[in-house]
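ZP: hey, is the S-adenosylmethionine complex queued? I don't see it on the tracker
AM: it wasn't, my bad. submitting now with these inputs:
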Amino acid sequence: MQTSGAQDAIWTVEAVLRWISGDFKARGIDSPRLEAELLVSLVLGCTRIQLIVDRDRPLVATELARIRELVARRRKREPVAYLTGRREFYGHEFRVDRRVLIPRPDTETLVEVALERTRDHSLFGRMLDLCTGSGNVAIAFAKERPTWHVEATDISPDALEVARMNALRLGAVWNVRFRRGDLFDAAAPRPYDLITANPPYVTLREMQEVSADVRDHEPHLALVGGEDGLDVIRRIGAQAGAHLVAGGVLALEIGCEQGDATRALLEGEGFIDVRVDRDLGGRPRVVSAVHPESGAAFDPAWD
Ligand SMILES: C[S@@+](CC[C@H](N)C(=O)[O-])C[C@H]1O[C@@H](n2cnc3c(N)ncnc32)[C@H](O)[C@@H]1O
């Protein structure tokens, strides 16, 4: 895209989109046209639909310079969600940056399962979302269940800053609280009706095979779950029962090959009604289970 000098070509919206898509396609980037549209609409401050309406509009030099800068970053495999600073999840627009994992569509299954398995619980239930990252699971759940009290925790103070900002922007402040801590260290001494987590579960071997977008840009703390990917899942399975009411639900996102191991692990910890749900692509994605006994004692002095 040559834009300097006296013989400048006139770059219309459509010409720029075609040029970027071709460049991205040649570099093996998935969905090149979509990504081109996301970047150009970001710079022009318009919707993707508006790009069609304005397809013949010429771009000015400052717009082209900003687009070139974004294209250069994408060529270095920086994920498009970090370039635009946003990603849609469960119908809400979340702000994201390098401090948090980019919410994946597959994780919407975790929210669905959590909602479905607590449908008959109290109107004033209590939820704990471990490993909250951008706060996507906690906030999406809280928006569906505004009468519930939701606590969301993460070990990363950087991630919690992003999560708090998302709760503020999405109007989920009054019933969602964020705390920092290593898994249950930040939990309240009062049992929950629901515990969710999308923990780091990528194995060391898988980590060597992930795309450069993920490997070079997303936080490794959010991804790696040890040799077999189950380090954090094992810890959650062992401790969750002590933090659930009788009949409380634990729902965990897992890697698609971890369904059987996680099921066995939860059954070994005394959970019943263990279920493995599949994501939109048909892969095992969420393991959920019920704890038959109350774990922690209610402490009315707390809060
Ligand atoms: C896979 S990301 C999930 C983020 C978000 N919930 C989502 O679904 O996109 C895992 C998150 O777990 C956090 N984490 C990793 N180890 C942790 C630990 N020991 N205790 C609490 N959080 C942890 C990371 O900081 C990261 O934000």
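AM: back. The mean pLDDT is 94.
ZP: great, adding it to the tracker
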